[in-house]
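Hi everyone, sorry if this is the wrong subforum. Our group has a chain we'd like a structural model of before ordering constructs, and none of us has done structure prediction before. Sequence below.
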Amino acid sequence: MERLDEATLGGLESVLRAACGMVLAPSVRRSLGTALTRAAESQGIPTSDFLQRVLARDTSAVESFIGYAVIGETYFFRHPEQLRELGRLASTHLGSFLVWSAGCASGEEPYSIAMSLLEAGLSPEHIRVVGTDVSGRALEKARQATYSPWSVRRMEPELEKRFLSLKPESVTVPAEVRARVEFRRHNLVTDPPPVSSANAVFCRNVLIYFPPEVIPTVMERLVLALAPGGWLFLSPAELPFSKGLGLEEREVDGLPVLRKPFPGERIPERPSSRFARSGPIRVVARSSSPLRRMSPARGTPAISSPVPTPAPVAPASQVPPPASPIPAAQPPAGPSVPQVMEQATAAARAGQFDLAEELALMAARELTPEAYLLLAMMYEGRGDVQGAVAAVRKALYLEPQLAIGHAMLVAMYGRLGQPEEAERARRNALRAMEGLDDEHVLRGVETMTVGGLRSALVVPGTKMGKSGAR
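Answer:
Right subforum, don't worry. Here is the predicted structure as tokens:
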């Protein structure tokens, strides 16, 4: 039953969409046969009989199927910048502090929220975190509060020691943290908000699975659950969904955070509006890195033009300069992100750094990590190390596993005299490459393999800069 025909797949997708509003990614769609078989086994009935029950929309069968079909990839302290900001905001709050973690999957996020609030110094009795998900199976795992070491792969060792019970094969959330979190079954598409007057709402990497016509309703419910002055945390890819809802966008450590205003409060214009452009950028499929090579020259990035695959990439020294200066200050209306990035790299190579920065900012607005890495290289080249750090952190906010981004921070924090931050960045870069072959080419604005970067990070005295190992 793992290979289902198109008609059956379409029927199962319709059931899932009606039940929880989700649109499946192709990789998830291919796994529906396996999910169906495992759900049937959990119910102790033949897969063919279980399939008929699901297609007939039997409530118990559909709920069981959802638990195996809806895959929630999560881990502890995902997007730690947001959690640190939550702790900072909560540290000045008096009285109880309520947080809703919507679409919490197996519970790592709400437990991370509770840990962050405890770390910020809130009294345990003042902390209340409500985690909700449509999958009863995921919630049952969350209540058990026992995970594999893979779930803590991005957690700082100090926090691990304080908040988790560690064993060789498992980690367990202690009673101190579990007591601050409750879990409820909830459907974001069909159910009203499970809480009201929340001080913060987290809904990260959930909205991207909903069809466009459903998202506005879900967003309205998220905002409705917030108290005036409360904070909404979305993933970077989901920020555009918040437009038109009257939320204030603030930038904290270079990262956007949304705030619900008080009645009658005047909302300032969103910061991103100052980067207005003549036409929309089209987001198209791209390779792992639209920028092929980057090498330093006299403190500024010298960038070679991208070469379409499978043509070989010419060494930077052999790439001729542009025939004439780039005349336009704006790209043509409606260019794709790779086209904008190509213009940005060409402008930087021609020494037109103001234009290159403007174009890179436009690409960055479309949530392109490579654009922020390019900006970081330009900032570092002109001596603005703090600005370079902020740009790399934005890239890592969009793609936390960007090993080259973490590696760039090693040298930057070293220049800033922050050895602890540099060591943390080094560990994060190594963690991001765990399980990858040495010949794997890393995503970024420079060509580097896992083996090359790993060697640069583990050999004493080797430094990482904007051009890689040196």
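For your construct planning: The first helix runs from residue 6 to 20. The chain has three domains: 6-69, 80-263, 293-303+331-469.
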